[in-house]
Amino acid sequence: MGVKVKDLLQLPSLREAQVYAGAENLERSVTSLSFLEVSDMLFFSKNIQMNQKEYYAGELLISSFYSIKDDVDKQCQAIQCLYDLGEIGIILYYVGIVLPKLSPKVVQLAEKLGFMIICMPKNDPSLRYNEVIYEVMNAIITKQSANDSFVNEILEKVSLLPEHLRSVEMTIKMLADRVKTNIILTTSRFEIINQVMWPRNSTLGVQQIIESLQIDKKGKDNNFLIEDLSVYQKEIQQKDNGRMYLFVITEKKELPIFELDQVTEVIQVALNLWGKKHGEVSEYALVKAIINDESEKMYRLAKILSVNVSSVQLLWLVHINDLSKEKEIRAELIDQLSKFYRTCVVQMIDHCFVVLLGNYMHKHSELDITKEFMETTTHYSSIKDIIFCPRMRNTSDVREMYQLVNDVEKLFPVIYKERKIFSAAEIKSLKKAMMLATMGEQKIAEHLVILEPLMEDKEAIKTLCSFLLDSNGSFSKCSELLYVHKNTVKYRIKKISELLGYDVTCFSETYDVYMATMIYRVLNH
């Protein structure tokens, strides 16, 4: 169990701190405390988050926002990113010294998200990080020692995660952090399905350790002592997966049997809730492993299935609105795309075909291939949309794009009317527009000011939005959607460009107007 935020605020080191946002989280339990040294989220996401692949449920952060102290936009980005990572909130130090002031924009965004901002006394240079670190961690450790049961705590934390993060792998990560040990799940032939190390950078050769053991394959549980290692082996039976083995490998200590029993119970429940066909060898299981960030399982399945996941360079996400057509649409996708790609994996995940493509055999435009499929499919009405995402560098890119599309997909028909094909760039722009639309009236006004000359002319606004968002800058398409002559659209766009002072038919001048129209539709849908 963790310690409630409201109880932590009674500690001597936090007694004078003030809650500026997210007060509804006072009853939340804190299970860890960390220091946010890299507060520039662009750098963090590219260089740290991509490699860590974690979700920090139950964690509080300490920071002074030093590297972004003069950039309110980056402070808002930090709050949004930390919220998306599952952090409960942040304890801000040295406001008035390092951070000139706490911007109302930052507070407003945090309050909207339900993200806690706890501000230490302002203009106080005598503050020391170690005082809060010591008291908070001591309270957490004392609480965990006094409350031996953690089964419900772990399962509740996982169940509160976004749906795409609820998985056996995430459960094992939380368990490993709770009991501070290495946890491995294998097949009945001792092939590793999931492997979570503690600490995460541990180089302990667990596969070699498991292979070296004289393991009873008839269902008997075992405990092994190897020098300074304690190895616990437990057979787990699961309806969909058959027999699997759990290994808990601890260095320099032995876990009490009641903790090992709880680890087993949590994993058994996680397999029942989120591990359907967890041990299955199939392309479906491979795609699920990629989406759920189950790296060990992904590489094992890829090897068995002879799928080179490192060759995946393009992702399609195809949402359908008629599940009865699933087999026919899948067959069409495979038939069409295998003409162009040697690597072609097509699997349905939650009403969406995840299509992994690589080893391109032709020189056709990837967008043209997408358009050709939509023009030739016999199931056009059953397909809601296709998002094509080129230049996937690795499976982390695939997972991040899948999650990003899940975040914004409900707004497709609002922002992009009458369209079925979207690019990764458009999805990222939509996410940015959604974020900007939450940053308060002043920030919104700064982005919408470019449209001010049109605000009283509803026809002009409608034409501009249709031209940029629905028609991709096509006069013909725009005229079809607005039921007017193409020359009428050309005349309106010429007038709009004159009023705005931007040529909206010129790409180099369009982006700010494009973002403004997206924000306008987000706010007015």
Automatic annotation (TrEMBL):
Residues 462-517 form the PucR C-terminal helix-turn-helix domain. Pfam families: HTH_30 (PF13556), PucR (PF07905). Transmembrane segments: none annotated. Gene3D superfamilies: PucR C-terminal helix-turn-helix domain (1.10.10.2840). It comes from the Bacteria. PANTHER family: CARBOHYDRATE DIACID REGULATOR. This is Transcriptional regulator.
